[in-house]
Design the sequence.
């Protein structure tokens, strides 16, 4: 890793951030449709169609595309092991965004669980 | 409020979406193999490379898988919180080591087992937290 640890870490943070923004747009687009969970296929396809014509969703896709491009740059600069372990910061971004933007009730158990997953992924990726 | 609860059905959907995502990587990798002899150095060779990939049936299989993952993931998010769905989707970090031990007889280091254990504990905690929440809302 000659390019500098800080640069790679900030790039990974950038992909995670863009991916989180994508998920936020997707979740808010889905919530805006007030879809009632069902296993009726016709209703599911109607739901997917209405989702696909929601502008917010495509805004999210743009961020997803940026995330993919930056990720490719990351992979060209860093080891896959390191990239994946650092990418686990994604879970922290999602938790923070869910708490502050979507106002989901996180609770102690969910914070602790998310933290354990991050530690676990770092162990799995580095071993 | 059944909406916030992680049920067995949602867990199945999550595992299915995880497996499909693996299929996406597999298909896309396969679709580039037929063109791997092409040296992509400039725009013209890039176009040739993309043409070969584009006509590979694996590429279209991959696109189909991408769309299926999108449908599954949208259904999951319509039922549970984002802060529950994303952590539980880390299930593959448990599934992949287990599958590689049982079916591929791979050796797994102690540190990796420790990591798998941490992820498992985290997934259980996050799932339980959404159940508690659902009961409080009742």
Sequence:
């Amino acid at each position: 890793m000659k390019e500098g640890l800080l640069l790679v870490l900030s790039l990974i943070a950038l992909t995670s951030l863009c991916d989180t923004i994508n998920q936020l747009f997707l979740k808010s687009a889905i919530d805006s449709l007030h879809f009632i969970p069902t296993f009726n296929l016709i209703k599911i396809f109607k739901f997917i169609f209405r989702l696909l014509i929601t502008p917010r969703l495509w805004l999210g896709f743009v961020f997803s595309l940026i995330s993919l491009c930056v990720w490719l740059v990351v992979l060209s600069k860093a080891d896959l092991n390191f990239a994946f372990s650092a990418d686990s910061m994604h879970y922290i971004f999602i938790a923070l965004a869910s708490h502050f933007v979507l106002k989901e009730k996180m609770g102690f158990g969910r914070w602790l669980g998310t933290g354990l997953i991050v530690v676990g992924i770092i162990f799995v990726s580095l071993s | 409020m059944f909406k916030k609860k992680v049920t067995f059905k949602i867990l199945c959907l999550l595992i299915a979406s995880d497996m499909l995502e693996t299929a996406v990587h597999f298909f896309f990798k396969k679709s580039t193999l037929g063109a791997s002899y092409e040296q992509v150095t400039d725009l013209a060779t890039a176009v040739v490379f993309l043409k070969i990939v584009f006509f590979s049936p694996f590429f279209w299989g991959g696109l189909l898988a991408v769309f299926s993952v999108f449908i599954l993931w949208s259904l999951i998010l319509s039922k549970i919180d984002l802060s529950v769905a994303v952590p539980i989707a880390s299930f593959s970090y448990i599934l992949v080591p287990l599958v590689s031990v049982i079916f591929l007889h791979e050796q797994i280091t102690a540190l990796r087992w420790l990591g798998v254990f941490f992820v498992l504990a985290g997934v259980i905690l996050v799932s339980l937290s959404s159940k508690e929440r659902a009961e409080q809302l009742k």
User: Anything to note?
Assistant: The mean pLDDT of chain B is 82. DSSP finds six helices and no strands in chain B. Chain B touches chain A at residues 3, 71, 73-75, 77-79, 81-84, 86-87, 90, 93, 97, 109, 111-112, 114-130, 132-133 (CB under 8 Å). Residues 2-137 of chain B form one domain.
